[in-house]
Design brief:
heterodimer, A: mainly alpha, 11 helices, B: 273 residues, alpha+beta, three-stranded mixed sheet, 11 strands, 18% helix
Chain lengths: 314, 273
Protein backbone atom coordinates (compact mmCIF):
# COMPACT_ATOMS: atom_id res chain seq x y z
CA UNK A 1 0.00 0.00 0.00
CA UNK A 2 1.19 3.49 -0.83
CA UNK A 3 2.75 4.87 2.39
CA UNK A 4 1.12 8.31 2.34
CA UNK A 5 3.31 10.58 4.47
CA UNK A 6 0.23 12.20 6.03
CA UNK A 7 -0.87 8.87 7.50
CA UNK A 8 2.64 7.78 8.51
CA UNK A 9 3.17 11.09 10.32
CA UNK A 10 -0.24 10.80 11.93
CA UNK A 11 0.30 7.44 13.57
CA UNK A 12 3.93 8.21 14.52
CA UNK A 13 3.21 11.60 16.13
CA UNK A 14 -0.17 10.85 17.66
CA UNK A 15 1.11 7.50 18.95
CA UNK A 16 3.99 9.21 20.78
CA UNK A 17 1.70 11.97 22.09
CA UNK A 18 -0.95 9.52 23.31
CA UNK A 19 1.73 7.37 24.95
CA UNK A 20 3.11 10.42 26.75
CA UNK A 21 -0.35 11.45 27.96
CA UNK A 22 -1.14 7.89 29.08
CA UNK A 23 2.03 7.90 31.22
CA UNK A 24 1.05 11.27 32.71
CA UNK A 25 -2.26 9.67 33.65
CA UNK A 26 -0.42 6.85 35.44
CA UNK A 27 2.02 9.22 37.15
CA UNK A 28 -0.61 11.62 38.51
CA UNK A 29 -2.77 8.73 39.65
CA UNK A 30 0.06 7.61 41.92
CA UNK A 31 1.95 10.76 42.88
CA UNK A 32 2.57 14.21 41.35
CA UNK A 33 5.81 14.72 39.44
CA UNK A 34 8.58 16.48 41.39
CA UNK A 35 8.24 19.61 39.26
CA UNK A 36 7.36 23.25 39.67
CA UNK A 37 3.81 23.91 38.53
CA UNK A 38 5.09 25.86 35.52
CA UNK A 39 7.36 23.00 34.45
CA UNK A 40 4.56 20.48 35.00
CA UNK A 41 2.73 22.08 32.09
CA UNK A 42 5.48 21.12 29.65
CA UNK A 43 4.79 17.34 29.46
CA UNK A 44 1.05 17.97 29.01
CA UNK A 45 1.73 20.62 26.37
CA UNK A 46 4.15 18.33 24.53
CA UNK A 47 1.71 15.42 24.55
CA UNK A 48 -1.14 17.54 23.20
CA UNK A 49 1.15 19.19 20.63
CA UNK A 50 2.29 15.80 19.32
CA UNK A 51 -1.31 14.56 19.13
CA UNK A 52 -2.48 17.76 17.45
CA UNK A 53 0.28 17.75 14.83
CA UNK A 54 -0.59 14.11 14.08
CA UNK A 55 -4.27 14.92 13.65
CA UNK A 56 -3.48 17.91 11.44
CA UNK A 57 -1.17 15.74 9.32
CA UNK A 58 -3.94 13.16 8.90
CA UNK A 59 -6.28 15.74 7.34
CA UNK A 60 -3.80 16.11 4.48
CA UNK A 61 -4.69 12.54 3.53
CA UNK A 62 -8.31 13.50 2.92
CA UNK A 63 -9.75 14.46 -0.45
CA UNK A 64 -12.31 16.71 1.27
CA UNK A 65 -10.74 17.83 4.58
CA UNK A 66 -13.44 20.43 5.22
CA UNK A 67 -15.93 17.60 5.72
CA UNK A 68 -13.68 15.84 8.25
CA UNK A 69 -16.26 16.42 11.03
CA UNK A 70 -18.48 13.86 9.31
CA UNK A 71 -15.99 11.18 10.32
CA UNK A 72 -17.27 11.48 13.90
CA UNK A 73 -20.72 10.15 13.03
CA UNK A 74 -20.34 6.42 12.33
CA UNK A 75 -18.88 5.08 15.58
CA UNK A 76 -21.37 2.20 15.53
CA UNK A 77 -19.59 0.42 12.68
CA UNK A 78 -16.33 2.19 11.82
CA UNK A 79 -13.05 1.99 13.75
CA UNK A 80 -11.86 5.12 11.93
CA UNK A 81 -14.85 7.02 13.29
CA UNK A 82 -14.21 5.66 16.80
CA UNK A 83 -10.58 6.75 16.52
CA UNK A 84 -11.63 10.29 15.63
CA UNK A 85 -14.05 10.55 18.55
CA UNK A 86 -11.59 9.15 21.12
CA UNK A 87 -8.72 11.30 19.84
CA UNK A 88 -10.87 14.40 20.35
CA UNK A 89 -12.04 13.12 23.76
CA UNK A 90 -8.40 13.16 24.90
CA UNK A 91 -8.35 16.98 24.82
CA UNK A 92 -10.95 17.83 27.50
CA UNK A 93 -9.63 15.11 29.80
CA UNK A 94 -5.98 16.17 29.39
CA UNK A 95 -6.81 19.87 29.79
CA UNK A 96 -8.92 19.23 32.89
CA UNK A 97 -6.10 17.22 34.46
CA UNK A 98 -3.65 20.00 33.55
CA UNK A 99 -5.94 22.42 35.40
CA UNK A 100 -5.93 20.20 38.48
CA UNK A 101 -2.14 19.86 38.36
CA UNK A 102 -1.73 23.65 37.99
CA UNK A 103 -3.80 24.10 41.11
CA UNK A 104 -1.88 21.31 42.88
CA UNK A 105 -5.18 19.59 43.55
CA UNK A 106 -4.73 15.97 44.64
CA UNK A 107 -8.37 15.21 45.28
CA UNK A 108 -10.64 12.51 43.94
CA UNK A 109 -11.29 14.43 40.73
CA UNK A 110 -7.58 14.33 39.89
CA UNK A 111 -7.58 10.59 40.46
CA UNK A 112 -10.58 10.17 38.18
CA UNK A 113 -9.12 12.41 35.48
CA UNK A 114 -5.75 10.63 35.64
CA UNK A 115 -7.39 7.23 35.18
CA UNK A 116 -9.59 8.61 32.39
CA UNK A 117 -6.61 10.11 30.56
CA UNK A 118 -4.72 6.82 30.74
CA UNK A 119 -7.74 4.89 29.45
CA UNK A 120 -8.81 7.23 26.66
CA UNK A 121 -5.25 7.77 25.37
CA UNK A 122 -4.51 4.06 25.10
CA UNK A 123 -8.00 3.33 23.76
CA UNK A 124 -7.28 5.77 20.93
CA UNK A 125 -4.12 3.83 20.06
CA UNK A 126 -6.17 0.62 20.09
CA UNK A 127 -8.69 2.07 17.62
CA UNK A 128 -5.86 3.13 15.30
CA UNK A 129 -4.51 -0.42 15.32
CA UNK A 130 -7.99 -1.87 14.82
CA UNK A 131 -8.51 0.18 11.63
CA UNK A 132 -5.70 -1.82 10.06
CA UNK A 133 -6.14 -5.09 11.91
CA UNK A 134 -9.73 -5.53 10.73
CA UNK A 135 -8.89 -5.30 7.02
CA UNK A 136 -8.97 -8.92 5.80
CA UNK A 137 -7.80 -7.75 2.38
CA UNK A 138 -4.28 -6.92 3.57
CA UNK A 139 -2.42 -9.87 5.05
CA UNK A 140 0.34 -7.68 6.52
CA UNK A 141 -2.27 -5.93 8.68
CA UNK A 142 -4.77 -8.71 9.35
CA UNK A 143 -2.59 -10.32 12.00
CA UNK A 144 -2.43 -10.50 15.79
CA UNK A 145 0.91 -8.64 15.82
CA UNK A 146 -0.57 -5.28 14.83
CA UNK A 147 -2.37 -4.30 18.04
CA UNK A 148 0.50 -5.12 20.47
CA UNK A 149 3.03 -3.37 18.18
CA UNK A 150 0.96 -0.18 18.03
CA UNK A 151 0.38 -0.24 21.80
CA UNK A 152 4.00 -1.00 22.70
CA UNK A 153 5.26 1.68 20.29
CA UNK A 154 3.02 4.27 21.92
CA UNK A 155 3.87 3.19 25.48
CA UNK A 156 7.63 3.06 24.76
CA UNK A 157 7.73 6.38 22.90
CA UNK A 158 5.60 8.00 25.61
CA UNK A 159 7.97 6.75 28.30
CA UNK A 160 11.01 8.04 26.39
CA UNK A 161 9.40 11.46 25.92
CA UNK A 162 8.55 11.62 29.63
CA UNK A 163 12.08 10.67 30.57
CA UNK A 164 13.58 13.24 28.19
CA UNK A 165 11.35 16.07 29.44
CA UNK A 166 11.99 15.21 33.10
CA UNK A 167 15.72 15.02 32.47
CA UNK A 168 15.54 18.73 31.60
CA UNK A 169 14.51 19.29 35.23
CA UNK A 170 17.63 17.40 36.32
CA UNK A 171 15.52 14.37 37.25
CA UNK A 172 17.33 11.04 37.00
CA UNK A 173 15.74 7.79 35.91
CA UNK A 174 16.06 5.34 38.85
CA UNK A 175 17.68 1.96 38.27
CA UNK A 176 14.59 -0.26 38.10
CA UNK A 177 12.47 1.95 35.80
CA UNK A 178 15.52 2.32 33.53
CA UNK A 179 15.92 -1.44 33.37
CA UNK A 180 12.18 -1.87 32.79
CA UNK A 181 12.19 0.67 29.97
CA UNK A 182 15.16 -1.07 28.38
CA UNK A 183 13.40 -4.44 28.51
CA UNK A 184 10.17 -2.92 27.15
CA UNK A 185 12.06 -1.59 24.12
CA UNK A 186 13.76 -4.94 23.54
CA UNK A 187 10.36 -6.67 23.74
CA UNK A 188 9.08 -4.28 21.08
CA UNK A 189 12.05 -5.17 18.87
CA UNK A 190 11.41 -8.88 19.37
CA UNK A 191 7.75 -8.41 18.48
CA UNK A 192 8.69 -6.63 15.25
CA UNK A 193 11.05 -9.49 14.37
CA UNK A 194 8.21 -11.98 14.91
CA UNK A 195 5.96 -9.81 12.72
CA UNK A 196 8.48 -9.69 9.88
CA UNK A 197 8.94 -13.44 10.09
CA UNK A 198 5.17 -13.82 9.69
CA UNK A 199 5.26 -11.43 6.73
CA UNK A 200 8.06 -13.34 5.00
CA UNK A 201 6.46 -16.76 5.52
CA UNK A 202 3.82 -15.69 3.03
CA UNK A 203 1.20 -18.28 4.01
CA UNK A 204 -2.37 -17.47 3.08
CA UNK A 205 -1.54 -14.94 0.41
CA UNK A 206 -4.13 -14.34 -2.28
CA UNK A 207 -3.36 -15.70 -5.74
CA UNK A 208 -4.74 -14.77 -9.14
CA UNK A 209 -6.40 -18.18 -9.25
CA UNK A 210 -8.15 -17.59 -5.93
CA UNK A 211 -9.23 -14.02 -6.71
CA UNK A 212 -10.70 -15.00 -10.12
CA UNK A 213 -12.18 -18.33 -9.04
CA UNK A 214 -10.34 -19.96 -11.95
CA UNK A 215 -7.59 -21.55 -9.85
CA UNK A 216 -9.13 -25.03 -9.90
CA UNK A 217 -8.47 -25.25 -13.65
CA UNK A 218 -4.74 -24.56 -13.54
CA UNK A 219 -2.24 -21.81 -12.95
CA UNK A 220 -3.78 -18.45 -13.88
CA UNK A 221 -1.60 -15.62 -15.13
CA UNK A 222 -2.40 -12.25 -16.67
CA UNK A 223 -2.35 -12.44 -20.43
CA UNK A 224 -3.42 -8.99 -21.54
CA UNK A 225 -3.60 -5.84 -19.40
CA UNK A 226 -7.06 -4.46 -18.56
CA UNK A 227 -5.86 -0.92 -19.24
CA UNK A 228 -2.85 0.59 -20.94
CA UNK A 229 -2.20 3.31 -18.35
CA UNK A 230 -1.88 3.05 -14.59
CA UNK A 231 -4.88 3.59 -12.31
CA UNK A 232 -5.73 4.43 -8.71
CA UNK A 233 -5.60 0.78 -7.65
CA UNK A 234 -2.10 0.19 -8.98
CA UNK A 235 -0.81 3.47 -7.55
CA UNK A 236 -2.42 2.91 -4.15
CA UNK A 237 -2.15 -0.86 -3.70
CA UNK A 238 0.76 -1.91 -5.90
CA UNK A 239 3.59 -0.11 -4.12
CA UNK A 240 6.95 -1.66 -5.04
CA UNK A 241 9.74 0.56 -3.66
CA UNK A 242 9.68 -0.74 -0.07
CA UNK A 243 10.09 -4.39 -0.95
CA UNK A 244 13.26 -3.57 -2.87
CA UNK A 245 14.88 -2.00 0.19
CA UNK A 246 12.95 -3.78 2.92
CA UNK A 247 15.98 -5.46 4.49
CA UNK A 248 17.96 -2.28 5.17
CA UNK A 249 14.90 -0.35 6.28
CA UNK A 250 13.92 -3.09 8.73
CA UNK A 251 17.39 -3.00 10.29
CA UNK A 252 17.17 0.79 10.55
CA UNK A 253 13.72 0.58 12.17
CA UNK A 254 14.85 -2.09 14.61
CA UNK A 255 17.92 -0.14 15.76
CA UNK A 256 15.94 3.11 15.95
CA UNK A 257 12.88 1.93 17.81
CA UNK A 258 14.46 -0.77 19.99
CA UNK A 259 18.22 -1.25 20.24
CA UNK A 260 19.49 2.36 20.45
CA UNK A 261 16.91 3.61 23.00
CA UNK A 262 17.25 0.36 24.98
CA UNK A 263 21.01 0.95 25.14
CA UNK A 264 20.46 4.56 26.22
CA UNK A 265 18.11 3.47 29.03
CA UNK A 266 20.50 0.73 30.14
CA UNK A 267 23.40 3.19 30.20
CA UNK A 268 21.31 5.62 32.22
CA UNK A 269 20.83 2.90 34.81
CA UNK A 270 24.59 2.40 35.09
CA UNK A 271 26.15 5.86 34.78
CA UNK A 272 25.21 9.03 36.62
CA UNK A 273 26.30 11.66 34.09
CA UNK A 274 24.90 12.73 30.72
CA UNK A 275 21.32 11.75 31.55
CA UNK A 276 19.83 14.50 29.37
CA UNK A 277 21.94 13.60 26.34
CA UNK A 278 21.07 9.91 26.72
CA UNK A 279 17.34 10.59 27.06
CA UNK A 280 17.14 12.90 24.07
CA UNK A 281 19.25 10.55 21.93
CA UNK A 282 16.76 7.83 22.80
CA UNK A 283 13.80 10.04 21.82
CA UNK A 284 15.36 11.00 18.48
CA UNK A 285 16.32 7.40 17.67
CA UNK A 286 12.89 6.08 18.62
CA UNK A 287 11.09 8.77 16.61
CA UNK A 288 13.11 7.96 13.50
CA UNK A 289 12.73 4.24 14.17
CA UNK A 290 8.96 4.35 14.58
CA UNK A 291 8.63 6.58 11.51
CA UNK A 292 10.55 4.03 9.40
CA UNK A 293 8.64 1.15 11.00
CA UNK A 294 5.30 2.81 10.22
CA UNK A 295 6.42 3.64 6.66
CA UNK A 296 7.31 -0.03 6.14
CA UNK A 297 4.03 -1.11 7.74
CA UNK A 298 2.25 0.53 4.83
CA UNK A 299 4.80 0.08 2.08
CA UNK A 300 5.35 -3.64 2.64
CA UNK A 301 1.63 -4.37 2.88
CA UNK A 302 0.09 -5.88 -0.24
CA UNK A 303 -3.58 -5.72 -1.10
CA UNK A 304 -5.45 -8.64 -2.68
CA UNK A 305 -6.35 -6.52 -5.72
CA UNK A 306 -2.71 -6.76 -6.85
CA UNK A 307 -3.38 -10.45 -7.58
CA UNK A 308 -5.71 -9.39 -10.42
CA UNK A 309 -2.86 -7.53 -12.08
CA UNK A 310 0.21 -9.64 -11.38
CA UNK A 311 0.78 -13.35 -11.32
CA UNK A 312 2.50 -13.10 -7.96
CA UNK A 313 0.89 -13.29 -4.56
CA UNK A 314 -0.63 -10.49 -2.54
CA UNK B 1 -25.50 5.25 7.69
CA UNK B 2 -22.71 2.74 7.39
CA UNK B 3 -24.26 0.06 9.54
CA UNK B 4 -25.76 -2.48 7.18
CA UNK B 5 -29.53 -2.61 6.69
CA UNK B 6 -31.43 -5.81 7.47
CA UNK B 7 -31.05 -8.26 4.59
CA UNK B 8 -33.45 -7.35 1.82
CA UNK B 9 -35.33 -9.93 -0.20
CA UNK B 10 -34.52 -8.00 -3.37
CA UNK B 11 -30.88 -8.38 -4.36
CA UNK B 12 -30.20 -6.68 -7.65
CA UNK B 13 -26.98 -7.69 -9.32
CA UNK B 14 -25.16 -8.98 -12.35
CA UNK B 15 -24.38 -12.45 -13.62
CA UNK B 16 -21.27 -12.53 -15.78
CA UNK B 17 -20.61 -15.46 -18.09
CA UNK B 18 -16.86 -16.07 -18.29
CA UNK B 19 -17.46 -18.70 -20.97
CA UNK B 20 -18.96 -16.19 -23.40
CA UNK B 21 -17.10 -12.94 -22.69
CA UNK B 22 -14.79 -12.10 -25.59
CA UNK B 23 -12.95 -9.29 -23.82
CA UNK B 24 -14.09 -6.49 -26.15
CA UNK B 25 -14.29 -3.90 -23.31
CA UNK B 26 -17.63 -2.60 -24.66
CA UNK B 27 -19.11 -2.92 -21.14
CA UNK B 28 -16.28 -0.86 -19.64
CA UNK B 29 -16.61 1.86 -22.28
CA UNK B 30 -20.41 1.99 -22.10
CA UNK B 31 -20.14 2.22 -18.30
CA UNK B 32 -17.67 5.09 -18.47
CA UNK B 33 -19.83 6.89 -21.02
CA UNK B 34 -23.11 6.57 -19.11
CA UNK B 35 -21.72 7.33 -15.66
CA UNK B 36 -19.67 10.27 -16.91
CA UNK B 37 -23.01 12.06 -17.42
CA UNK B 38 -25.17 10.16 -14.96
CA UNK B 39 -26.58 11.14 -11.61
CA UNK B 40 -23.29 10.34 -9.82
CA UNK B 41 -20.96 11.67 -12.53
CA UNK B 42 -18.70 12.95 -13.83
CA UNK B 43 -15.80 10.45 -13.80
CA UNK B 44 -13.02 12.91 -14.54
CA UNK B 45 -9.56 11.85 -15.72
CA UNK B 46 -6.31 13.32 -14.50
CA UNK B 47 -4.22 14.70 -17.33
CA UNK B 48 -6.77 13.43 -19.90
CA UNK B 49 -4.95 14.61 -23.01
CA UNK B 50 -1.41 14.35 -21.67
CA UNK B 51 1.19 11.61 -21.69
CA UNK B 52 -0.15 9.60 -18.75
CA UNK B 53 -3.91 9.91 -18.55
CA UNK B 54 -5.43 8.26 -15.50
CA UNK B 55 -9.02 8.15 -14.42
CA UNK B 56 -11.87 6.37 -12.72
CA UNK B 57 -13.55 3.41 -14.40
CA UNK B 58 -16.12 1.25 -12.66
CA UNK B 59 -15.47 -1.77 -14.79
CA UNK B 60 -12.13 -3.29 -15.78
CA UNK B 61 -11.78 -6.26 -18.14
CA UNK B 62 -8.78 -8.47 -17.39
CA UNK B 63 -7.54 -11.23 -19.70
CA UNK B 64 -5.91 -14.31 -18.23
CA UNK B 65 -4.18 -17.39 -19.50
CA UNK B 66 -4.97 -20.62 -17.73
CA UNK B 67 -1.81 -22.58 -18.39
CA UNK B 68 -2.04 -26.03 -19.97
CA UNK B 69 -2.68 -28.56 -17.28
CA UNK B 70 -5.35 -30.69 -15.74
CA UNK B 71 -8.43 -31.49 -17.78
CA UNK B 72 -11.41 -29.38 -16.82
CA UNK B 73 -13.49 -30.80 -14.00
CA UNK B 74 -17.10 -31.55 -14.80
CA UNK B 75 -19.48 -28.64 -14.27
CA UNK B 76 -20.90 -29.96 -11.02
CA UNK B 77 -17.57 -29.76 -9.19
CA UNK B 78 -17.06 -26.16 -10.22
CA UNK B 79 -19.32 -25.05 -7.42
CA UNK B 80 -18.07 -22.08 -5.43
CA UNK B 81 -16.43 -24.04 -2.64
CA UNK B 82 -14.16 -25.99 -4.94
CA UNK B 83 -12.96 -23.07 -6.99
CA UNK B 84 -10.05 -22.09 -4.85
CA UNK B 85 -8.33 -25.38 -4.25
CA UNK B 86 -4.94 -25.61 -5.88
CA UNK B 87 -4.70 -27.82 -8.97
CA UNK B 88 -3.35 -31.27 -8.25
CA UNK B 89 -0.38 -32.15 -10.43
CA UNK B 90 -1.54 -34.54 -13.16
CA UNK B 91 -0.04 -37.98 -13.61
CA UNK B 92 2.16 -38.55 -16.68
CA UNK B 93 -0.46 -40.49 -18.62
CA UNK B 94 -3.38 -38.30 -17.56
CA UNK B 95 -4.97 -36.28 -20.35
CA UNK B 96 -3.65 -32.75 -20.62
CA UNK B 97 -5.81 -29.71 -21.30
CA UNK B 98 -4.53 -27.09 -23.71
CA UNK B 99 -3.92 -23.56 -22.43
CA UNK B 100 -6.98 -21.28 -22.47
CA UNK B 101 -7.61 -17.57 -22.37
CA UNK B 102 -10.36 -16.18 -20.17
CA UNK B 103 -11.68 -12.64 -20.20
CA UNK B 104 -12.66 -11.47 -16.77
CA UNK B 105 -14.74 -8.31 -16.24
CA UNK B 106 -14.22 -6.96 -12.71
CA UNK B 107 -16.59 -4.51 -11.04
CA UNK B 108 -18.48 -4.00 -7.78
CA UNK B 109 -20.23 -7.19 -6.63
CA UNK B 110 -22.76 -5.34 -4.41
CA UNK B 111 -21.93 -7.71 -1.53
CA UNK B 112 -24.56 -8.60 1.06
CA UNK B 113 -22.17 -7.85 3.96
CA UNK B 114 -19.66 -5.45 2.44
CA UNK B 115 -16.76 -4.27 4.60
CA UNK B 116 -16.38 -1.20 2.36
CA UNK B 117 -19.63 0.11 3.84
CA UNK B 118 -19.04 -0.64 7.51
CA UNK B 119 -15.51 0.85 7.59
CA UNK B 120 -16.77 4.20 6.25
CA UNK B 121 -16.46 6.81 9.02
CA UNK B 122 -18.85 9.36 7.49
CA UNK B 123 -21.96 7.53 6.37
CA UNK B 124 -21.13 8.29 2.73
CA UNK B 125 -20.96 4.59 1.85
CA UNK B 126 -24.25 2.79 2.22
CA UNK B 127 -26.16 -0.26 1.12
CA UNK B 128 -29.71 0.39 0.02
CA UNK B 129 -32.27 -1.51 2.07
CA UNK B 130 -34.75 -1.81 -0.79
CA UNK B 131 -32.59 -3.48 -3.45
CA UNK B 132 -29.13 -4.04 -1.95
CA UNK B 133 -27.25 -1.65 -4.24
CA UNK B 134 -24.04 -0.31 -2.64
CA UNK B 135 -23.56 3.41 -3.27
CA UNK B 136 -21.38 6.36 -2.25
CA UNK B 137 -23.02 9.66 -1.32
CA UNK B 138 -20.44 11.98 -2.82
CA UNK B 139 -21.64 14.97 -0.82
CA UNK B 140 -20.61 13.19 2.41
CA UNK B 141 -17.42 11.36 1.31
CA UNK B 142 -14.25 12.86 2.82
CA UNK B 143 -11.93 10.90 0.54
CA UNK B 144 -10.13 8.92 3.26
CA UNK B 145 -9.81 5.90 0.90
CA UNK B 146 -10.34 3.37 3.70
CA UNK B 147 -13.22 1.71 1.81
CA UNK B 148 -10.94 0.99 -1.16
CA UNK B 149 -8.55 -0.80 1.20
CA UNK B 150 -11.44 -2.84 2.63
CA UNK B 151 -12.68 -4.12 -0.75
CA UNK B 152 -10.79 -7.26 -1.85
CA UNK B 153 -12.05 -6.91 -5.42
CA UNK B 154 -10.71 -3.45 -6.22
CA UNK B 155 -14.20 -2.22 -7.02
CA UNK B 156 -13.70 1.32 -5.74
CA UNK B 157 -11.54 3.92 -7.40
CA UNK B 158 -10.66 7.29 -5.89
CA UNK B 159 -11.01 10.41 -8.00
CA UNK B 160 -8.04 12.69 -7.40
CA UNK B 161 -9.89 15.41 -9.30
CA UNK B 162 -13.10 15.29 -7.25
CA UNK B 163 -11.50 14.22 -3.97
CA UNK B 164 -14.07 11.48 -3.36
CA UNK B 165 -14.39 7.73 -3.84
CA UNK B 166 -16.39 6.50 -6.80
CA UNK B 167 -17.86 3.12 -7.64
CA UNK B 168 -20.35 1.15 -9.75
CA UNK B 169 -23.92 2.27 -9.07
CA UNK B 170 -25.48 -0.69 -10.88
CA UNK B 171 -26.82 2.16 -13.04
CA UNK B 172 -29.41 2.98 -10.40
CA UNK B 173 -30.19 6.05 -12.52
CA UNK B 174 -31.11 3.82 -15.49
CA UNK B 175 -32.84 0.81 -13.99
CA UNK B 176 -35.63 2.86 -12.38
CA UNK B 177 -35.64 5.60 -15.01
CA UNK B 178 -39.13 5.89 -16.45
CA UNK B 179 -38.01 8.31 -19.15
CA UNK B 180 -36.08 5.45 -20.76
CA UNK B 181 -37.71 2.79 -22.92
CA UNK B 182 -38.34 -0.35 -20.81
CA UNK B 183 -35.66 -2.28 -22.71
CA UNK B 184 -33.07 0.33 -21.73
CA UNK B 185 -33.81 0.07 -18.00
CA UNK B 186 -30.81 -2.11 -17.29
CA UNK B 187 -27.17 -1.27 -16.51
CA UNK B 188 -25.25 0.26 -19.41
CA UNK B 189 -22.70 -2.58 -19.35
CA UNK B 190 -25.42 -5.21 -19.77
CA UNK B 191 -27.09 -3.23 -22.55
CA UNK B 192 -23.78 -2.83 -24.41
CA UNK B 193 -22.51 -6.42 -24.23
CA UNK B 194 -22.51 -7.77 -27.82
CA UNK B 195 -22.26 -11.41 -26.74
CA UNK B 196 -24.89 -11.37 -23.97
CA UNK B 197 -22.25 -12.37 -21.45
CA UNK B 198 -23.76 -10.03 -18.85
CA UNK B 199 -27.17 -10.47 -17.25
CA UNK B 200 -29.01 -8.20 -14.83
CA UNK B 201 -31.76 -9.16 -12.44
CA UNK B 202 -32.94 -9.95 -8.93
CA UNK B 203 -30.72 -12.62 -7.42
CA UNK B 204 -32.86 -12.65 -4.30
CA UNK B 205 -35.76 -14.11 -6.27
CA UNK B 206 -35.13 -17.83 -6.86
CA UNK B 207 -37.53 -17.80 -9.82
CA UNK B 208 -35.80 -14.96 -11.69
CA UNK B 209 -33.99 -15.59 -14.98
CA UNK B 210 -30.60 -14.74 -13.40
CA UNK B 211 -31.16 -17.09 -10.44
CA UNK B 212 -32.11 -19.88 -12.85
CA UNK B 213 -28.98 -19.23 -14.89
CA UNK B 214 -26.81 -19.36 -11.77
CA UNK B 215 -28.42 -22.65 -10.72
CA UNK B 216 -28.12 -24.30 -14.12
CA UNK B 217 -24.57 -23.21 -14.89
CA UNK B 218 -23.05 -23.53 -11.43
CA UNK B 219 -22.55 -19.78 -10.92
CA UNK B 220 -20.06 -18.98 -8.19
CA UNK B 221 -19.11 -16.24 -5.71
CA UNK B 222 -15.80 -14.49 -6.23
CA UNK B 223 -13.31 -15.19 -3.41
CA UNK B 224 -16.00 -16.33 -0.95
CA UNK B 225 -13.40 -16.79 1.81
CA UNK B 226 -13.62 -13.08 2.66
CA UNK B 227 -17.19 -13.65 3.76
CA UNK B 228 -18.64 -10.53 2.14
CA UNK B 229 -21.21 -12.65 0.25
CA UNK B 230 -21.16 -11.07 -3.21
CA UNK B 231 -24.55 -10.71 -4.90
CA UNK B 232 -23.03 -10.73 -8.40
CA UNK B 233 -22.21 -14.20 -9.69
CA UNK B 234 -19.76 -15.48 -12.28
CA UNK B 235 -20.62 -18.39 -14.57
CA UNK B 236 -17.68 -20.80 -15.06
CA UNK B 237 -16.16 -21.96 -18.33
CA UNK B 238 -17.94 -24.83 -20.00
CA UNK B 239 -15.81 -27.93 -20.62
CA UNK B 240 -13.93 -27.46 -23.91
CA UNK B 241 -14.35 -29.86 -26.82
CA UNK B 242 -11.15 -31.38 -28.19
CA UNK B 243 -7.63 -30.38 -27.28
CA UNK B 244 -7.85 -32.50 -24.19
CA UNK B 245 -5.57 -35.38 -25.18
CA UNK B 246 -2.44 -33.32 -25.67
CA UNK B 247 -1.43 -29.68 -25.70
CA UNK B 248 -2.77 -27.84 -28.70
CA UNK B 249 -0.31 -27.66 -31.61
CA UNK B 250 1.73 -30.68 -30.60
CA UNK B 251 -0.17 -33.24 -32.71
CA UNK B 252 1.59 -34.36 -35.96
CA UNK B 253 0.36 -32.90 -39.25
CA UNK B 254 -2.30 -35.11 -40.78
CA UNK B 255 -1.81 -35.86 -44.53
CA UNK B 256 -3.62 -38.47 -46.54
CA UNK B 257 -2.93 -38.27 -50.31
CA UNK B 258 -5.79 -40.63 -51.17
CA UNK B 259 -8.35 -37.98 -50.14
CA UNK B 260 -6.96 -35.34 -52.56
CA UNK B 261 -8.64 -34.43 -55.90
CA UNK B 262 -7.06 -36.28 -58.91
CA UNK B 263 -4.91 -33.37 -60.17
CA UNK B 264 -3.36 -32.70 -56.75
CA UNK B 265 -2.89 -36.44 -56.24
CA UNK B 266 -0.91 -36.57 -59.51
CA UNK B 267 1.05 -33.46 -58.49
CA UNK B 268 1.88 -35.02 -55.11
CA UNK B 269 3.05 -38.20 -56.87
CA UNK B 270 5.10 -36.28 -59.46
CA UNK B 271 6.80 -34.10 -56.82
CA UNK B 272 7.45 -37.02 -54.49
CA UNK B 273 9.66 -38.81 -57.10
Amino acid sequence: VNPALSVVFFSTLSGAGLGLLAWLGVVYLITPLPLSREFALIPFGTGLALLTSGLVASTFHLGQPRRAWRALTQWRSSWLSREGILALAVYPVALALTWQVWHADRGALTQVLSSALFAVALATVVTTAKIYHTLATIRAWHTVHVLPVFLLCAIACGALWNWALLSLAAWQLPFLPALGLSLLLLALGALKLLYWRYLDRGEGEATTGMMTGLGALGRVRPFDAPHSESNYLLREMGYVLARRHARRLRVLALFGLAFVPALCAALAALVTRGETALAWSAVVAASVGVFVERWLFFAEARHTVVAYYRADRA
Amino acid sequence: MTSLPAASSRKLGLVIDLDICVGCHACAVACKEWNEQGQFGPLPDENPYGRDPLGVWFNRVHSYEIEAGNPMPPLASLAANDMCTAPTPGREEAPVRAAMTVHFPRSCLHCETPACVTVCPTGASYKRAEDGIVLVDESKCIGCKLCSWACPYGAREYSEVRGVMQKCTLCVDRIYNETLAPADREPACVRACPTRARHFGDLGDPASAVSTLVRERGGFDLAPEFGYRPVNKYLPLRPRRGGESQPLGSEPEAFDASTLPPILRWLDRALSR
